[in-house]
Amino acid sequence: MKRQGYCLESVKFAEMKRLILLIVVTIGLGLTSFSQTTSPISTAFLTPNPVEGKAELMFDEPVLENLTVVVKDLTGKVVAEFKTDMPGTECKKIDLNLESLRRGIYICQIIGSSGKTKTLRLQKT
Q1: Cα dihedral 22, 25, 28, 29 sign
Q2: Is the pTM of this model over 0.70?
Q3: What is the CATH number of domain 40-124?
């Protein structure tokens, strides 16, 4: 069927097959490009949370880029920063020493060298 304005009109079967093929190819290309834009950073989580002293930032998939982990208080002030320098090596865990933080709620922002970011809530007990 062809769309003309807001009306639909019937088309020949051969044209319908081409339209279906076009839709399938378009959807396939869309899914391929989506999988390429996802990042292991999006799988990050903190354990344990709430944190008493030390925490681990874990990833479901290995991260192959340098990361910066910035911990901010609720006013936006940076209270801790951690950097990884491991190009080309797989990382599934980063140890965070948070003993110097006071009790409270913090924002943990993970920034990859590719520009991908993820923000997590962190509770210090």
Answers
A1: negative
A2: no
A3: 2.60.40.1220
